[in-house]
Amino acid sequence: MTSGARPAKRPPTAQEAVLAEIRRAILGGDMPPGTQIFQDELATRFGVSRVPVRDALRTLEGEDLVTYVPRRGYHVIQLDVDELLEIQQIREILETEVLRRITPAVCAEVADRMAVAMDEMVEHERQEDFASWVSAHRDFHFALFGAAEMPYLTRILGQLWDASDLYRAHYMHAGQARQRADDDHRGLLAAVRAGQPAELVELMRAHRETTVRSIRRSLIGHPAD
């Protein structure tokens, strides 16, 4: 007879634990853009050697959350409006192609997963846990993107989303932007539940534009033209 018990979850390695904590500090605003990162201090803080800290920072560099400058070490990336605009332009092209592959049958398959992710987003927002919100937000959107069965394109989208996670967290720290983000996500979920994939391209375009406008306003003091 087989047991109904779930297998025990593997505890995180030192590198995984350190990675999660540094990522949370960056996306949560405890390590703002431009912050210099001292590996010895982090090693002491987490009670580990420099090796897992160094490996974690290399991973975060690949996610475009930190950058390494020779003789100056690691820093949290600076937010740059022109970079954000370029990322969003590429995302629009790729996400539009993905969303055009979505069918009403696919909508029925992913609606519940998107709803779960949205509930998590709401709870993380209530707790102002923006690092966890960013993760749940990705789950919400990639439940849909992944259903298009374009794995290579979806991986490329993942890299673009890595590069914009810090902008996304910055957007959520601006309290006035949160309600509009919530409304946009409810609209996307409603279209999926209604089995109306044709609406998704326009809804996502409007969602991206609203996000960019809000971030640009907060970074340079006025909305995008």
Describe this structure in words.
The protein is mainly α. The protein has two domains: 14-76, Arc Repressor Mutant, subunit A (Orthogonal Bundle); 81-220, Four Helix Bundle (Hemerythrin (Met), subunit A) (Up-down Bundle). Helices cover 70% and strands 4% of the residues. It contains nine helices and three strands. It has helices at 14-27, 39-46, 50-62, 81-99, 104-126, 130-146, 151-173, 175-193, 200-220; strands spanning 36-37, 66-69, 73-76. It has a three-stranded antiparallel beta sheet with strand order 1-3-2. A hairpin with a 3-residue loop joins strand 2 and strand 3. It is globular and about 55 Å long. Residues 12-79 form the HTH gntR-type domain. It holds the Pfam family FCD. One of its GO terms (molecular function) is DNA-binding transcription factor activity. This is GntR family transcriptional regulator. InterPro entries: GntR_C, TF_FadR/GntR_C, Tscrpt_reg_HTH_GntR, WH-like_DNA-bd_sf, WH_DNA-bd_sf.
Which key terms come to mind for this protein?
225 residues, mainly alpha, Four Helix Bundle (Hemerythrin (Met), subunit A), 2 domains, three-stranded antiparallel sheet, disordered N terminus
Number of structurally distinct domains: 2
Report helical residue fraction. 55-70%
Order of helices and strands: HEHHEEHHHHHH
Gap from first CA to last CA: 66 Å
CATH architecture of the largest domain: Up-down Bundle
What is the SS-derived class?
mainly alpha
Counted by DSSP, the helix tally is 9
CATH superfamily of the largest domain: GntR ligand-binding domain-like
CATH hierarchy class name of the largest domain: Mainly Alpha
The name CATH uses for the topology of the largest domain is: Four Helix Bundle (Hemerythrin (Met), subunit A)
**E-strand count:** 3
User: In terms of per-residue confidence, which ranges show pLDDT below 50 for 5 or more consecutive residues?
Assistant: 1-7
- Average pLDDT confidence is 88
Protein name: GntR family transcriptional regulator
Domain HTH gntR-type: 12-79
Keywords: DNA-binding, Transcription, Transcription regulation
GO molecular function: DNA binding; DNA-binding transcription factor activity
